[in-house]
């Protein structure tokens, strides 16, 4: 499988790969496909402010399974192989500012978990999450909080209490909505969206799952510390700390 050595800010590439196929096929993001069928309902749109957003997302199902994803050869160059509705998606290696934000965010959440003495919770960056076998979806969030010991290469969504994604300008609306819908459908209680511009400036929007949809709870902006309670423990966040100085 060829991979473009470009910045994470560029769009992810999608490939539909049968387990025995030597030549991957390119595939569009599910929302960009005309031959769609309804499979899930989106609970929130992180691109829109306030309240909750419900929108039907229609997806074709690709040939690959979660088991295929688990046994696939994952990239060694820093890029990420995810499975979305049966299609393999290869994201370029994260940029420096993306990785800085992920590390800083994980550290903030780790410190909050430690200070709360929640020894049952574990903060892990960029680990595989098996969203659903039926949905043929497995993702790699930038940060997760698990309620099980982080032993292994991937974890079931039922053990994820918080998932955080860092959005760069190159992440399409289709990609964002599809991933958020997957986390909501899988029942992940809390979701954070970190929005970066091209120089790394970030804001953090925290959502909580209510009746199967994500409802916006808190927006943290740079230059002011905001305590986010849409999390397993309260976390004090100044998004300026997520940006390279």
UniProtKB/TrEMBL annotation:
Keyword Lipoprotein in record: no
InterPro entries listed in its UniProt record: Nuclease_put_TT1808, Restrct_endonuc-II-like, Uma2
Domain Putative restriction endonuclease: 76-228
Keyword Cytoplasm part of the UniProt annotation: no
Alphabetically ordered keywords of this record: Endonuclease, Hydrolase, Nuclease
Superkingdom, natural source: Bacteria
Gene3D superfamilies reported in the protein's UniProt record: tt1808, chain A
Region (Disordered): 1-32
GO molecular function terms listed in the Swiss-Prot or TrEMBL record: endonuclease activity
UniProt protein name: Uma2 family endonuclease
Lineage: Bacteria, Bacillati, Actinomycetota, Actinomycetes, Pseudonocardiales
